[in-house]
């Protein structure tokens, strides 16, 4: 057998759409299909949020910048760096901190001191951009989705499954880190 040949038991079924056939497990070929879907959907989502925010008047942001701005705006409560990282499931605080500095320089986020903590909040200018983003999202995404009750239920179930799988991936990452 050549180095790149897979045993027949690990071969990818022709109907499977995967990015890495060598990782397909006979115990769950579907997981490889899911991971490919996650890659494609994740990249499409990132492209979407960047273009939507650009159309809303804030060009040149990364997907993380856009998501940080939305989270800082969430529920109109000041957020600490640690809280933002925790909720967004980002371990590297430097990534979030860099986005916060970038957003502060654009005038859409402001920081303030609360005791020993620094907190972040959306400015009025930031809120204008976030509200415009919402309008564009409604027009371009939600209208195109044209969801009925059944599709909305499916989307809700998919969201639940993604949260469940994120926990499994986190646990697997901890296991791999301990090897």
Write up what this structure looks like:
The chain has 179 residues and is mainly alpha-helical. It is built from six helices and three strands; from the N terminus they run ααβααββαα. Strand 2 and strand 3 form a beta hairpin.
* Uncertain runs: none
- Secondary-structure class: mainly alpha
Helix content: 55-70%
Number of helices: 6
Q: Give the end-to-end Cα distance, rounded to a whole number of Å.
A: 29 Å
H/E topology pattern: HHEHHEEHH
Mean pLDDT: 92
Give the neighbour order of strands across the main sheet: 1-3-2
Largest sheet, in brief, is: 3 strands, antiparallel
User: Hey, roughly how much beta strand do the residues contain?
Assistant: 5-15%
Give the overall silhouette: globular
Rounded radius of gyration (Å): 20 Å
- The number of E-state strands comes to 3
Sum this structure up briefly.
It contains 6 helices and 3 strands; from the N terminus they run ααβααββαα. The chain has helices at 29-55, 63-73, 81-88, 93-105, 124-145, 149-177; strands at residues 79-80, 109-114, 117-122.
Task: Describe the SSE topology.
Elements: H1 29-55, H2 63-73, E1 79-80, H3 81-88, H4 93-105, E2 109-114, E3 117-122, H5 124-145, H6 149-177
Antiparallel strand pairs: 1-3, 2-3
Helix pairs in contact: 1-2, 2-4
What are the salient characteristics of this protein?
single chain; 3-stranded antiparallel β-sheet; mainly alpha; 179 residues
């Amino acid at each position: 057998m050549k180095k790149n040949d897979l045993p027949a038991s690990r071969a990818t079924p022709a109907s499977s759409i995967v990015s890495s056939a060598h990782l397909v497990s006979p115990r769950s070929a579907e997981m490889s299909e899911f991971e490919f879907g996650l890659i494609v959907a994740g990249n499409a989502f990132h492209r979407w949020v960047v273009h939507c925010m650009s159309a809303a008047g804030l060009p040149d942001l990364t997907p993380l910048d856009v998501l940080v701005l939305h989270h800082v705006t969430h529920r109109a409560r000041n957020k600490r760096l640690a809280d933002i990282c925790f909720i967004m499931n980002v371990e590297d605080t430097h990534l979030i901190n860099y986005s916060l500095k970038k957003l502060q320089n654009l005038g859409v986020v402001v920081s303030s001191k609360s005791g020993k903590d620094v907190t972040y909040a959306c400015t009025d200018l930031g809120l204008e951009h976030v509200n415009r983003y919402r309008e564009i999202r409604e027009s371009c995404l939600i209208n195109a989705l044209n969801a009925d009750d059944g599709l909305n239920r499916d989307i809700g179930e998919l969201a639940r499954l993604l949260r469940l799988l994120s926990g499994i991936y986190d646990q697997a990452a901890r296991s791999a880190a301990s090897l």
